[in-house]
From TrEMBL:
It comes from the Bacteria. The chain crosses the membrane at residues 12-32, 52-83, 113-133, 145-163. The keyword Transmembrane helix applies. It comes from Sungkyunkwania multivorans. This is Rod shape-determining protein MreD. Keywords: Membrane, Transmembrane, Transmembrane helix.
Length: 168
């Protein structure tokens, strides 16, 4: 229990600092901006208390909002994605998720890509919809969602592979 808590706190702090100091400074062509802090929500332990998970996701988004002066859009996007996570897990992993025998680093690559992609698209769609907040700019919202999602998914999958526990 204590080990898992320290790992989650460490993951929270490292991803927060990486996002604020490195990834917020990347803005390629106005459409591509990676949001790797969301990896905290994606990789949060699957069998943990749902209320604690929702609070942690909210605080991750809120902390990013405080550092970037974003007005709560990251907190809302993280919270909505955290609410949607059980449905996405069930549709991506099926029976493995139902019995809580799931480790993200030990899943098949196709299932992992599906899960990360759906979660990131949900997060980004909410994030950019709240950021732009204008239905007449739906194409801009979709364009930013698509391009940022592709870059974020690639980085998240790379980090999952690089930092996965090699003991199996």
């Amino acid at each position: 229990m204590n080990r898992e808590l320290f790992l989650n706190i460490g993951r929270f702090v490292v991803l927060l600092l990486a996002q604020v100091s490195i990834f917020n400074n990347i803005d390629f062509l106005g459409y591509v901006n990676p949001y790797v802090y969301f990896l905290f929500v994606i990789s949060y332990p699957f069998g943990s208390n749902r209320s604690v998970f929702l609070l942690a996701a909210f605080f991750m988004g809120l902390t990013i909002d405080i550092f970037t002066d974003a007005g709560g859009i990251n907190a809302a996007a993280c919270l909505i994605a955290a609410f949607a996570r059980p449905v996405v897990l069930r549709s991506s992993f099926g029976v493995s998720y139902e019995f809580h025998t799931l480790k993200l680093s030990r899943t098949a690559l196709g299932e992992r890509i599906t899960y990360v992609f759906i979660m990131v698209v949900i997060h980004h769609l909410v994030l950019f919809s709240l950021e732009i907040f204008n239905v007449s700019n739906i194409l801009l919202i979709l364009k930013k969602t698509l391009f940022s999602s592709i870059f974020t998914v690639l980085l998240c999958l790379l980090f999952i592979i690089l930092f996965s526990n090699k003991k199996q």
